[in-house]
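Is cytidine-5'-triphosphate placement plausible here? Inputs below.
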Amino acid sequence: MSELLNKHIVLGLSGGIACYKAAELCRTLVKQGATVQVVMTEAAAQFITPVTMQALSNRPVFVSQWDAREPNNMAHINLSREADLMLVAPASADFMAKLLHGRADDLLSLMCLARPVERVPLLLAPAMNREMWSHPATQRNMAQLRADGAQVLGVGQGEQACGETGDGRMLEPDELLHEVKKVFAPKPLLGKHVLVSAGPTFEAIDPVRGITNLSSGKMGFALAQAAALAGAKVTLVAGPVSLSTPYGVNRTNVRSALEMHAAVMSALPQADVFIATAAVADWRPAQAATQKIKKDGSGQMPALNWIENPDILADAAATELARSGKLFCVGFAAESHDVLAHAQAKLVRKKVPLIVGNIGSETFGADDNALLLVDAQGADEWPRAPKTELAQRLVAEIAKRIQRS
Ligand code: CTP
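Reply from A.M.:
I modeled the complex. Tokens:
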């Protein structure tokens, strides 16, 4: 399920070292099922060759407005009329200054000016040195370009090719892909706030040991990404996992079940939906030792006292927010057997409208999963598929349910 299947994207490159990222972006767009027409300025061709971009897009690249390959010699009209979307990445400070004035002395700026504004969105992905980025002229130009109907994307922060550190790096290819997908994706969660708990928790025994589980967090992270794509504001409360934060998602890292409980409860008042995917440890040691526990020579593991952790999902579902219908709670059930019966029992015990059952050993760490959706009416089996796809489908399903309720 790709929003980009059969979409025709014009990928414009203006001059900047970030052109190297445009090569990866082009490949990613093609992999997602889009057709990509690359158009480069002469400055861009100093950084990366049209040959590279032709090979990746599988189409001849256009650089000049005098290119005689178009029978009517009007590449700027023909190419901009075919497009479903135009993305200039990188958009240099100079190129944006030019667009701002409606100047059109090369093919790419001609196309930006000639595009049918109502039908073809224009996305600009700025890339420049941090001083150029923060200069009032650049900021002024970007504000005006937004007012003129372009979508000026943000920039990354960090070490720059020039050796300086700050704002102005072009967004990464996967972040740009998300922005492009967002243009075409249905947005049933626009204006909604989705809270997701994900990953395992870690319950300390002493400063170097603890108890945890094999949850990778992949399903929760995929759900957070899918909810953002569906237009929601997303808060992700993540246990200890090694996944990078999905683009556009606000992440809070926690370690123990108690920390996760506190983070979820403090974010809950703003939320319209809470999806509990986390594999929360059921128990924690009553007291974590302050120093490493040493072997005492008896051959026995020292006894530990265990306390049951609070049930985050049940506590969320018991709030006035959930009981009044303002907050829609979704639980997961990680089982080893009898998924339907256990999921039904959890539906009742935790008082939530929807439980998503799965087999723990077949999902922890995997990139795909099979789901069983259980509610008061019955059960629906979703066959094995990539977690990213299941997440998009589940987000659409949740959106449908909150519109009905
Ligand atoms: N959950 C939670 N807090 C807990 C335990 C579970 O929020 N302390 C949530 C999980 O995130 C999941 C659902 O409750 O959405 C079910 O979790 P699961 O581990 O499958 O079940 P448990 O409630 O722990 O019950 P059991 O161990 O008996 O299977």
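Short version: DSSP finds 16 helices and 19 strands in the chain.
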